[in-house]
Write a structure and sequence with these properties.
Blueprint lengths: L7 E14 L8 E13 L8 H11 L5 H21 L8 H13 L11 H21 L9 E2 L7 E2 L1 E4 L6 E4 L18 H13 L10 H22 L3 H6 L8 H4 L1 E5 L11 E5 L2 H24 L20 H13 L11 H22 L8 H15 L8 H11 L3 H26 L8 H15 L1
Parallel strand pairs: 3-4
Antiparallel strand pairs: 1-2, 5-6, 7-8
Length: about 475
């Protein structure tokens, strides 16, 4: 099997046997199933189901905050599944040395451009999920065995772990000596640059929707282009998550031009079955932009119903070409294909960068007005910044302000708060260098250095003038 072949298969409706009813002698036994939506089924590279990994995912399903969390666990387990398969090692036989080798393979893997495929933080996250998986194997499958697969040093296990406390959150986390060092804090938030946005907009406008029957071309082409531009604009304007955009419903936003309120479902909450609505005030220009897209969408649905009166069309804002709901994964792939056609295909460019841009700009503008209106409050207190973050969180749907603090640093960079200080320091270092050269020229007092004295004096005078 190709090593790049996906080891995850998303099952739309996975039926998991949960219990047997009717166990009395006269009653026929019946198996009762639990249905799990979008369950990520894991397989070995040779095509066999990975029973232990799938059993762990089923156990995690009871506590996972959303189907997305379950898929994240699955994608992180893929790496240890490949490692064990290629190394012909069972999960129960893993040792500290295996995990060290596994960690090195994660860190050393590079992409087609020779760049590291993942950061050290991502490697640590994959290793952490692997360790929790091994802990589950120890508890659920090896509890009655003589040896211990994983545990503390005094328990003499094959895999030795420690429990440490996070200085940031105060929570305990699992640690292993194979973890790569974090070193200097790595920047993980990259706002989408304006030049990327401009080029993506140009590519969408230039894009031709090929391989369609001539009779279907006009309304489909028009809608696809409008949907792509609308999707790009919504990400840029409101910093939505892809899952929120595909859940955006027309029934919640019927009178948007009158109310000037956009109701957005909030994902990534603890309750996977609910997406509470948050309301954002919008301008008349925003309302007109949304209405223009909805008009194009309505024309597509009318064409679909003309051809098939029995067709069932979704009420979601984003629709497929048959009137069906659009999935978040489809949206991500579509935008990814467009970005790869730009002049920056090797650069980091993903939908989360729209969100980083929106949050950073929102915080930046708020801080800018605070500094302008209250100059004495230039170095804002934590309470002031928390008030700013709370307002931003209402727009983005963040549950915790803690994850927004990274954006404050990005906002200060955008405000160029330290530009003046950096320039002054640079001029002072330049002045020091020029003074040293002038001193050397005066002391030497020879034919080579004499012509340099006057230009040095002129440059020193210019630097001093800038400092003043």
């Amino acid at each position: 099997m190709n090593p790049k072949t996906s080891l995850i298969h998303i099952i739309d409706e996975y039926r998991n046997p949960s219990r047997i009813s009717g166990t009395a002698k006269r009653i026929k036994a019946r198996i009762v199933y639990d249905e799990i939506q979008n369950f990520p089924l894991l397989i070995w590279p040779d095509g066999r189901p990975c029973l232990l990994a799938n059993s762990w995912l089923l156990a995690k399903n009871e506590t996972a905050s959303s189907p997305t969390s379950l898929r994240t666990y699955a994608y992180q387990l893929v790496h240890i599944i490949r490692y064990c398969h290629h190394g012909q090692v069972d999960f129960q036989d893993l040792t500290d040395d295996h995990l060290k080798s596994f960690s090195m393979s994660l860190c050393d893997e590079s992409d087609e451009f020779g760049r590291a495929k993942r950061s050290n933080s991502t490697c640590r996250s994959i290793l952490s999920t692997t360790l929790y998986f091994l802990l589950w194997i120890q508890t659920a499958r090896l509890a009655n065995r003589d040896f211990r697969l994983i545990g503390l040093a005094e328990e003499h296990c094959q895999v030795t772990i420690k429990w440490k406390r996070s200085g940031k959150s105060g929570k305990n986390f699992i640690w292993h000596r194979s973890y790569p060092s974090i070193g200097k804090k790595q920047r993980t938030k990259f706002p989408m640059p304006d030049r990327y946005i401009e080029e993506i907009e140009s590519k969408i406008s230039e894009e031709l929707y090929r391989n369609l029957p001539p009779s279907d071309y006009p309304h489909i082409q028009r809608y696809v282009n409008e949907r792509r531009l609308f999707t790009h604009w919504m990400f840029k304007r409101f910093g939505l998550r892809p899952a929120e955009l595909v859940l955006l419903d027309t029934t919640d936003n019927q009178s948007i031009q009158k109310t000037l309120i956009l109701k957005i479902p909030t994902k990534k909450t603890r309750n996977r079955h609910e997406a509470p609505l948050r309301e954002l005030l919008i301008s008349t220009t925003d309302a007109f932009r949304i209405s223009r897209y909805l008009d194009t969408r309505l024309k597509l649905l009318d064409e679909i119903l003309k051809k098939n009166r029995r067709a069932t069309c979704t009420t979601k804002m984003l629709v497929g070409l048959s009137g069906n709901e659009l999935k978040a994964g489809t949206l991500v792939k579509e935008m990814s294909r467009i970005s790869k056609r730009t002049t920056f295909p090797t650069a980091k460019c993903c939908l989360s960068m729209y969100r980083h841009r929106f949050i950073t700009r929102d915080i930046l503008v708020s801080l800018h007005h605070i500094i302008q209106d209250h100059p004495h409050n230039l170095l804002s207190t934590d309470a002031t910044i928390e008030a700013v973050l709370r307002r931003t969180a209402q727009k983005t749907g963040h549950r915790s302000l803690e994850s927004l603090w990274d954006y404050v640093e990005l906002a200060w960079e955008g405000y160029n708060l330290f530009t003046g200080a950096d320039k002054a320091l640079s001029l002072r270092y330049e002045l020091d260098g020029l003074t040293s050269e002038l001193r050397q020229a005066i002391v030497a007092n020879d034919a080579f250095h004499a012509p340099l004295v006057e230009p040095l004096l002129n440059r020193i005078a210019a630097v001093i003038q800038h400092l003043d």
